[in-house]
Amino acid sequence: MIKAEKILNEFLSRLLDDRFFADIQLTRAYPNAVKPTVLKNTAVAVGIKSIELDDNAVYENVKAGTFSVFADVFLPFESDKTVPEAIVFRICRDVSDFNIVSINISEIKANSLAQCYIMRAVFTFNNELFFGGKEDE
């Protein structure tokens, strides 16, 4: 069971605990804006893409379903082009116990405004979600 309000915190904390990401900037995603400086290092921005759930238990109130977290990988133009795939596979390893049911990875695209390559990976998980209740108040 995962507390719904902590999905991103849990996701990010798993990555921050992995030394693989020591030189990669990890952050929550914010609305796109033109960055005033050129990206120097690889960065990963994560956010919630969607949550779909329903009560699928008989005579109980159990909220379970799928939730999707996206990870946008930003890579400076002069970087090794295999880095985004390595990052995605490492994320899979770090969050595998969340019960991954699908991964959708976009092709790497050059973004002239951001002056970097961008690749999006969407991780979909199937799990029970908890939204709080009397014992959490």
Essential attributes:
single chain; 137 residues; alpha/beta; 7-stranded mixed beta sheet; 7 strands; elongated
Care to give the gist of this entry?
The protein is of the alpha/beta class and 137 residues long. The chain is built from two helices and seven strands, in the order E-H-E-E-E-H-E-E-E.
Terminal Cα span: 18 Å
Radius of gyration: 17 Å
Q: What's the total number of strands?
A: 7
Q: Could you estimate the helical fraction of the residues in percent?
A: 10-25%
Topology:
Layout: E1 2-3, H1 7-16, E2 25-28, E3 43-55, E4 63-76, H2 83-94, E5 100-105, E6 109-111, E7 116-130
Describe this structure in words.
The protein has 2 helices and 7 strands, in the order βαβββαβββ. It has helices spanning 7-16, 83-94; strands spanning 2-3, 25-28, 43-55, 63-76, 100-105, 109-111, 116-130. It is α/β, with parallel strands linked by helices and 137 residues long. 15% of the residues are buried. Strands 1, 2, 3, 4, 5, 6 and 7 form a 7-stranded mixed β-sheet that branches.
